[in-house]
Amino acid sequence: MRFVDVPVRDGSVLRGIHYPAADPGPVVLVMTPYGADRYHPAGLFFSGRGFHFVSLDSRGRGDSDGVFRPFHDDGADGHDAVAWLAGQPWSSGDVVTYGGSYSGFAQWAVAGTRPPALRAVAPVASVHPGVDFPMVGSVPASYAVQWLAFNRGRRMNTGPWSDDRYWRDTHRDLGDRPFRDLDVASVGERLPAFQEWLDHPTYDAYWASFVPSEPVGVPVLAITGQYDDDQLGALTYEERHPATHLVMGPWDHAGTRSAARSFGGLTFAEDSAIDLPALHADWYDWVLARGPRPAFLADRVAYFHIGEGWRHAPALPQGASRPLRLPETTLTLDPALVGDEPDGFREELGEDAFVHIAPAHDVSGRPSAALTLTSDLPDFDLLVGLYLLRDDATLLGEAVFRAGHRDLTRPVELTFPFISRTTEPGDRFAIRIRAPHRRYETNKAARGEVRLGPGSYLTLPASDPGP
């Protein structure tokens, strides 16, 4: 292990840790706001596989110079880091990238600048600014303040960040104060990034400026999960820049790095847990012509069909559509009745929302919905959840939107996360429509009725038999 200083174009220095290989060779680069040292196990692993592994603190974080401005500087800083690393005497001149969540976004940002020495990127659970964070469906996420507090200054504010009760209570106690005051209520000061984000409530040129506008021109290994909070972001990148290989596990956000089989009250089969660091190393070796194509990546896409196992295909499946008509109903919204975000993925549906139940079937693809809505309210938000009913209600996926940014003279169209699973006799689907819980901003204008009209439906993609 060696400490490393990497200069960038404005004279600033990014600092981190270099895990050297025994001989000159390719470099694996990760850029993170969460502390370069957190990648210590990965550094030891990749150096043992013949890669030089370099973990750098993002600008303004840890030991790196500057001020951390989320999303703004990662592309240019990463471009310069790639060039510097490629020029070191211990480097072969080939650089690939690694990391998940914000580091997944950073990989896309760097790739968009097309550094000449960049050979491949492997973004995992990638945040897509303006799509899945810090808002979803134009509904701001309260977690944005929690995350900014985590990344304020140079230290890791792990204690406050991990106290979920504190953040829930602060949001609940905001009362009649505007959502813009959540930063002051939580940490006693304005957080410039939070205020800046709220000034861009829809996906516009501001958000688009952080991500590639053209194909990145290098191989991409993209990894996400059916319960990954950033699946929406990862699949948005996939739609705009199709990956060389895409892996869709049954995992949650953290599991996209660990392949954990159990989380949030759910447990999956043993074969769902694959060796993700080894898959990365094998794939890097393949794209660098140092080894064969990984056997696991037999086709462009590998996805886990829950209840069966891994399937391989040229693309994520989108099974034949089975429309499910939703009955007309009237929803009564009251911001005073908004609840906390559920703890985990298994929950009681309760009686605080519209719930429609229908027979279940095997599903593989991204469900969608078209909702015909009318209301006298000036604005309102809705959260639509899809559940599997067996012993209890297991969340399969949900979609949220703000009506103020939609044309309600036309059906509101929604797309859900990718789902692939078998069902059992007696299983049922449940569709729940309600005001969003406190994971999102509470829309204080939404006090009154919203009518779900005729012609509303959910489309569920049926699963084709596996190979």
TrEMBL record:
Keywords: Hydrolase
Pfam families associated with the record: Peptidase_S15
Domain of life: Bacteria
Xref: SMART domains: PepX_C
Signal peptide annotation: none
InterPro entries: AB_hydrolase_fold (IPR029058), CocE/Ser_esterase (IPR005674), Galactose-bd-like_sf (IPR008979), Xaa-Pro-like_dom (IPR000383), Xaa-Pro_dipept_C (IPR013736)
Positions in coiled-coil regions: none
Keyword Hydrolase: yes
Domain Xaa-Pro dipeptidyl-peptidase C-terminal: 281-459
NCBIfam families: CocE_NonD
Protein name: X-Pro dipeptidyl-peptidase
Organism: Streptomyces camponoticapitis
Organism classification: Bacteria, Bacillati, Actinomycetota, Actinomycetes, Kitasatosporales
